[in-house]
Amino acid sequence: MSAIYRRYRPTQFTEVIGQDHITKSLQSALQKEMIAHAYLFSGPRGTGKTTMARLFAKALNCPKRTSSAEACDKCTICQEIKNGSAVDIIEIDAASNRGIDEMRELRERILFSPTSLKYKVYIIDEVHMLTKEAFNALLKTLEEPPAHAIFILATTELHKVPDTIISRCQRFQFHRASIESLHSVLIDIAKKEKITLTNDAIELIAERADGSFRDALTILGSVSAHGSNLGAEQLREILGLPSEQVIAKLLELVIGQDPLALATFLQKQLRDGQDLSVMVRQLCDRLKATIFDEKDPAVIQKNATLLEQCLLVLARIRVATDPNGIIVTRLLALVKSGAVPGPVPVVQTNTPTPKVTDLTKKENEFVNDQSSTQSVDSVSSQESQPLESKDFWGAFLLEIKQHNHALYMLVRSAKLLELTDSKLVLAVKFRFYSERLFETKNRKLVEEAASKVHGKRLILECQVKSDIEEAKPASGEDVMNTVVDVFELEEVAS
Ligand SMILES: [Zn+2]
């Protein structure tokens, strides 16, 4: 957790920003002494759930609480709770204490009266991470809690908390911080910290924080050492974000009609180490801005549709094992849906073709993993033989097509470079094609098909050659389909 965030954590209910519906309700409960035994705080990360839990625990126990239900913040009890030394405030991180043992221990210890405070308060963070058995144990405690015990459960994923637990709790939903409140907090704290930022830099941080106060202050802390009067462009560099130009180019390609240009662009971004999800998020921010600035209803509608689709992409990658693959697929599909297929553009790849050695290494590692070192030896000792490629290629493609159409599309776009009694060497146009080919399932299928057709056990090797001609003259649509198929491949195959 960043030092700035810790330093500016609210110490009173009145200092909490953007969660008035919760502070008012808790203050009112304290004033009326209507205290529940269990509370459930749900909401996005960085919106102050744990902070609120501590404030509430403090106000519950402070003997000199004010008439507006604020803790005095001066007495020994307040001080103890503030510096984390109060033994009766027990914080449990369910992400690292998920099990039944922790909950059993909790059940035993909860029976003892608080040592020095009025209430024993259990704050269980990320409660959705508990195992099923642990939830059951917790439920038993919630069903018959001792009078002195109060639970505050916090979660970012309410849907993973069992209904039986939810129904025992008073529930509060935390809101994401609005851009305006992030903005005002950032201006306020930057001033106190003597960090000078231009207005567009503040805006950029507020956007990047994505509704989280914690993230906003963490970013602020991370840029504070980089000099004064920082602007948005400098900030982008410091934070490793793509420049305005890159985002503008991405937008141009997404609304354009040239899937291959988009594929090439995305491939270059990946090679440059860009995180595509960051780019799409920024694309969304840009689209949002254009929607609000635009006067033409048709453009507004068009951009809104595009924004919706990009937001769906972001939603989808949250649970994806290969977020970049999903992003490339979906962005290309956007081009397809809005485009009239034109002539195939010539790919201008300025980046050098990746060396084959990487893949060879991967290959050997793989073979060693399978402990079939014999195959490695036979590969190196085997002489290459002339190709009998035509007969082999057709039957080989057919064999793959019967098993997996997406993989067939990928292999069909490849070129047969070499066929010996021990190996099959293919050339593909893009690096991500070879990456897909080398995923265990795909590779296995290709090698089995090749071995079956050829009659000898073959090992697959692959080279990336951006200048290869595809097996068949492909229309823009065909190339696009292949690219989309290749990215869908992992999902289809797994
Ligand atoms: Zn106090």
Overall description:
The two termini are 37 Å apart. Helix 9 (199-209) crosses helix 10 (213-223). The protein is globular and about 90 Å long. Strands 2-3-4-1-5 form a 5-stranded parallel beta sheet, covered by helices on one side. It has 4 domains: 3-173, Rossmann fold; 179-239, Helicase, Ruva Protein, domain 3, CATH 1.10.8.60; 244-338; 357-493, 2-Layer Sandwich (GMP Synthetase, Chain A, domain 3), CATH 3.30.300.180. The protein has helices spanning 3-7, 20-31, 49-61, 76-82, 100-109, 132-143, 163-166, 179-192, 199-209, 213-223, 232-239, 244-254, 259-271, 276-293, 297-317, 323-338, 357-369, 373-381, 389-403, 405-412, 431-437, 440-454, 476-493, and strands spanning 38-42, 89-93, 120-125, 149-155, 170-173, 415-419, 423-428, 459-464. The chain contains 23 helices and 8 strands. The chain is α/β, with parallel strands linked by helices and 494 residues long. It binds zinc ion (ZN). The site of zinc ion (ZN) has 8 residues, from helix 4.
